[in-house]
């Protein structure tokens, strides 16, 4: 849902109704998993996807049917022969999809929730979005912030609040809970997967475009303002121009959702950035260059006391081996590697 928050807020502010479809449960073989989401507009335009094919078409129709007023529905889909044929794939699982329509004008407290969600997402902050589903009533969403503060309209059950404060809802997808007569959909809002591109040259330019297409937040970092700027990188979430690379990570909050890609214009800059990157807890560190360059830089860093075992965790030469040559092809190989690492982490969280 997080990649659709800003668009949802823009639609609310423009008075345009829309619906959100979120997979809240899956079993067996399915095209998308829990947390996958889609926004449906009145003209059947969509953003995001829950897997395509006949299931998605049925969900789109159901979303359109909900746009007469703000309400909520949970639908179950078993991927039988008809639905599998419509998806042109071999699946044998089932999906539970939560549909929610939002029809402006919205109550001020709900607009505040959406605005807060957008602000938290932009700043990479964590929260829990908790939506109360009540029979024949408009769904109400509240936010539980990291501080324990609640933003939104409603009182939450004590057991739910205790679980939220104790950080028990930490999975990658939504959780459905029942308290009394009401259902609650609890959606963890975590830091977005962010690719930090050190180097705004030809490959960095192509990689930033692909990052936007593949749901990575993108930060571009260089010491050349003529390369690292909003005009050249309109899809980047942030652009940072450095005096030099010796303090390349100052002001950056690097965690396990960070993917560091080192593409600067020279070996010395790459080594400087890599040395600092190795001190972070990034999920991925990759450096462009030949095997000869890798050997030279690794040798220099080991002379400075960097452990060989730590260096062996770096993806270098960077990217999947697809015989890429052009900047765009190299960016494809890098993005393929990032997508694979991200998927492996989600399948096997530490």
* Gross morphology: elongated
Given helix and strand content, the structural type is alpha/beta
**What does the average pLDDT come to?**
89
Give Rg in angstroms: 22 Å
Number of strands: 15
CATH architecture of the largest domain: 3-Layer(aba) Sandwich
Q: Can you tell me the residue ranges where pLDDT is under 50 for at least 5 consecutive residues?
A: 83-90
The largest beta-sheet arranges its strands as 3-2-1-5-4
CATH topology assignment of the largest domain: Rossmann fold
Distance between the termini: 23 Å
Helix share bin: 25-40%
Count, helices: 10
Topology order in helix (H) and strand (E) letters:
HEEEHEHEHEEEHEEEHEEEHEHHH
CATH homolog superfamily of the largest domain: NAD(P)-binding Rossmann-like Domain
CATH class of the largest domain: Alpha Beta
Summarize the structure.
The protein is of the alpha/beta class. Helix content is 33%, strand content 24%.
Structure, described:
With 350 residues, the chain is of the alpha/beta class. It folds into three domains: 101 residues, no CATH class; 82 residues, no CATH class; 154 residues, NAD(P)-binding Rossmann-like Domain (Rossmann fold, 3-Layer(aba) Sandwich). Helices cover 33% and strands 24% of the residues. The strands form three sheets. The chain has a five-stranded antiparallel β-sheet, with helices on both faces. Strands 8-7-6-10-9 form a five-stranded antiparallel β-sheet, sandwiched between helices. A hairpin with a 6-residue loop joins strand 6 and strand 7. The longest helix has 21 residues. It is elongated. About 2% of the residues have low confidence.
């Amino acid at each position: 849902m997080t990649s659709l928050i800003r668009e949802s807020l823009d639609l609310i502010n423009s008075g345009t109704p829309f619906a959100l479809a979120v997979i809240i449960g899956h079993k067996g073989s399915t095209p998308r998993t829990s947390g996958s989401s889609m926004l449906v507009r009145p003209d059947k335009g969509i953003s995001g996807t829950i897997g395509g094919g006949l299931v998605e078409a049925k969900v789109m129709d159901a979303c359109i049917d909900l746009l007469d007023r703000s309400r909520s529905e949970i639908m179950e889909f078993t991927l039988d022969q008809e639905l599998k044929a419509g998806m042109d794939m071999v699946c044998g699982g089932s999906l539970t999809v939560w549909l929610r329509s939002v029809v402006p004008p919205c109550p001020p407290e709900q607009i505040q929730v959406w605005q807060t969600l957008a602000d938290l997402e932009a700043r990479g902050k964590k929260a829990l979005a908790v939506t109360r589903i009540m029979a024949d009533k408009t769904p109400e969403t509240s936010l539980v912030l990291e501080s324990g503060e609640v933003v939104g309209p409603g009182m939450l059950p004590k057991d739910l609040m205790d679980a939220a404060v104790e950080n028990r809802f930490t999975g990658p997808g939504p959780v459905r809970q029942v308290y009394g007569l009401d259902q609650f959909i609890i959606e963890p809002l975590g830091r977005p997967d962010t690719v930090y591109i050190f180097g705004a040259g030809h490959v960095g330019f192509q990689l930033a475009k692909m990052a936007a297409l593949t749901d990575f937040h993108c930060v571009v970092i260089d010491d050349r303002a003529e390369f690292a700027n909003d005009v050249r990188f309109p899809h980047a979430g942030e652009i940072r121009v450095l005096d030099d690379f010796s303090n390349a990570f100052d002001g950056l909050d690097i965690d396990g959702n960070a993917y560091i890609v080192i593409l600067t214009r020279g070996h010395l800059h790459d080594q400087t950035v890599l040395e600092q990157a190795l001190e972070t807890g990034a999920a991925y560190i990759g450096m462009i260059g030949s095997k000869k360059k890798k050997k030279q830089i690794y040798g220099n860093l080991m002379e400075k006391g960097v452990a060989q075992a730590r260096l062996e965790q770096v993806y270098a030469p960077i990217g999947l081996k697809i015989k890429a040559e052009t900047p765009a092809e190299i960016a494809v190989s890098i993005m393929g590697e990032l997508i694979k690492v991200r998927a492996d982490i989600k399948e096997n969280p530490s």
